[in-house]
């Protein structure tokens, strides 16, 4: 049961982080990021980066995978904000 739940959490963790990619997609397709909060997404980037580091430190696969996806997505949003502000 524990192994099943770990696999489930990897998928749920990735799915939950897709919000970053949805925002990045909108920024890069519309070439507009005026309504997107730089502070909010930088705060999110710091948060998911911290969780990624913690996941690596404790060797927790779901945390590492989910937060790797989140860091990439949040970074894309922040880059998009700087480009299309």
The gist of it:
The protein is mostly helical and 85 residues long. Helix content is 87%, strand content 0%.
Features of the shown structure:
87% helix, Monooxygenase, 85 residues, mainly alpha, elongated
Structure description:
With 85 residues, the protein is mainly α. It has a single domain, classed as Monooxygenase (Up-down Bundle). It has three helices and no strands. The protein has helices spanning 2-30, 38-58, 61-84. The termini are far apart. The model has no long low-confidence stretch (mean pLDDT 95).
Coarse morphology = elongated
Number of domain units:
1
Provide the CATH topology.
Monooxygenase
- Taking all Cα atoms into account, the compactness measure Rg is 14 Å
Query: What share of the residues does DSSP label as strand, in percent?
Result: under 5%
The counted number of beta strands is 0
Distinct helical segment count: 3
The helix content, as a percent range, equals over 70%
Largest sheet: none
List segments where confidence is low: pLDDT < 50 over at least 5 consecutive residues.
none
Structural class: mainly alpha
What's the CATH architecture name?
Up-down Bundle
CATH class descriptor name: Mainly Alpha
Question: How do the SSEs run, as a string of H and E?
Answer: HHH
Distance between the terminal alpha carbons, to the nearest Å? 47 Å
Mean pLDDT: 95
């Amino acid at each position: 049961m524990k192994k099943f739940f770990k696999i489930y959490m990897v998928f749920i963790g990735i799915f939950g982080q897709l919000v970053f990619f949805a925002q990045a997609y909108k920024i890069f397709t519309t070439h507009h990021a005026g309504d997107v909060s730089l502070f909010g997404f930088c705060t999110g980037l710091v948060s998911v980066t911290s969780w990624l580091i913690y996941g690596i430190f404790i060797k927790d696969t779901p945390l590492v995978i989910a937060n790797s996806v989140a860091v990439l997505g949040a970074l894309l949003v922040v880059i998009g904000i700087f480009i299309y502000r």
